[in-house]
Amino acid sequence: MGRTTGTSVGHQHHVAAFVVVALVALVRFVASQGECSESTACPDNTMCCSQYNYCGTGDAYCGEGCKNGPCNAGGTPPAPEPPTSGSGWSSFFTEEVFDGWFPSRNADFYTFERFKAAASAYPTFGNEGSVDDQKREIAAFFGNVNQESGGLKFVRETNPTEIYCDTTNTQYPCAAGKSYYGRGPIQLSWNYNYGACGAALNLPLLATPELVETDADVAFKTALWFWMANQCHQAIIGPPPSFGKTIRIINGAKECGLVNDERVTNRVTYYTNFCNSLGVDPGTDLRC
Fold it and tell me: Where does the secretion signal sit in this chain (predicted)?
């Protein structure tokens, strides 16, 4: 082989210099992209933080495992984050508060744990809006429950005078020999309510309405179903919040429009007392 000439040595120096420059550029590029984490966003808000803690764009960064930034661009959406611990009604309405509100209740049937289990099926109940909205809804629900069930003492209507069967309702016809008088915390009544509630809960409430007075889980579920299905939730959330509308929805035909009706007064008193207990303004639309 011949000797290396000066020209070839110079060429090698140029190649080496180019490699160094390229490496420096690459390092600067990577540095500019930045490292990131679940708590540290990328310097460029158009980039995503990948599952390997690097910033970039495209599926490799914004797809599966993306930690922050505009994730899911062409990738698999990450699992939703769990709700913040202590958020919603569970942050202020505890078993201690429940016991304090209903000291003389039927404690074998109406328990806090059964209410809590039933409420889990209705994620917006007591969890929507501001904390004040949430507090008003809990106070409104239990203010009406207090009136309907005698402070959670009664699981069924005392001395019903009829079987509450609307024979004109063909969608949910009454079952032979069954009565649809008030049962549960909110005293679910009438065949059409039992039928619609049973359909929603996948329970045979038309054929076996007694479930509401023998199964506490079912009892609380029927009360929450009625509350949510009949827009009591929307009425008390507002704006503005209206406790009066919840009365009208629950028993307006019998109580509303009368001068100083004692039942309405009771409901308003229970509601405002519970609001005071939770430290929230009850609002001004109280009666119906």
Answer: 1-32
**To the nearest whole percent, how much of the chain has pLDDT over 90?**
69
Its domain, for residue 227, covers 88-278
Is 255 marked active-site?
A: no
> Could you give the number of structural domains in the chain?
2
Q: Are residues 68 and 120 in the same domain?
A: no
pTM for the whole thing?
0.71
- Residue pLDDT, tens place only, 215-266: 999 999 999 999 999 999 999 999 999 999 999 999 999 999 998 899 999 9
Residue 287 lies in a domain: no
| Annotated catalytic residue, options 137, 148, 157, 255 | 148
